[in-house]
Design brief:
Layout lengths: L5 H16 L3 H6 L1 E9 L7 E2 H15 E14 L2 E12 L11 E14 L2 E9 L1 H13 L1
Parallel strand pairs: 1-6
Antiparallel strand pairs: 1-2, 3-4, 4-5, 5-6
Length: 143
């Protein structure tokens, strides 16, 4: 397995984020290798695996957050992996992280670690600034 170029890693990450923004579950799943691992730090139950579980996660996520917009802050690269730090803006229409969104906007930092294999995502690991999301939704709810 030869290392991916930075340009190819960028293409895979950007396509993944665009599929999220488009709420295109099929495109999201197609970006992963079969049996891929998806791990969101703090999510109950730990990592999930494979197309069906990954699709289910994104269906739930995109029911809570809509109109996703990613703004890249920086990326770091290694052999067949990349670390992406972005700002994510979205509209909270469901109850992200257990807090009713009521159509309010949220903006928070999110860090992703992507491992790649066979020109697709082998593993996605994400850390979201949940405290910032909670603060925004709870402050607006109290106002």
């Amino acid at each position: 397995m030869s290392p991916l170029t930075r340009a190819h890693m960028d293409q895979l990450i950007d396509a993944h984020f665009q599929a999220e923004a488009d709420a295109d579950i099929d495109a999201i799943v197609d970006g992963f290798v079969p049996g891929a691992q998806h791990d969101v730090v703090g999510r109950p139950g730990g990592p999930i695996y494979g197309d069906r579980q990954i699709a289910g996660y994104y269906r739930d996520l995109l029911a809570d957050l809509r109109d996703l917009r990613f703004q890249k802050v920086r990326r770091r690269y290694g052999e067949n992996h990349a670390i992406d730090e972005s700002m994510l803006e979205a509209t909270a229409v469901g109850s992200p992280f257990g807090i009713p969104g009521r159509g309010r906007s949220v903006r928070f930092r999110i860090l992703h670690v992507f491992d790649f294999s066979d020109g697709r995502i082998l593993r996605e690991n994400a850390w979201a600034d949940v405290a910032a999301i909670q603060q925004q939704l709870l402050e607006e709810a109290a106002a």
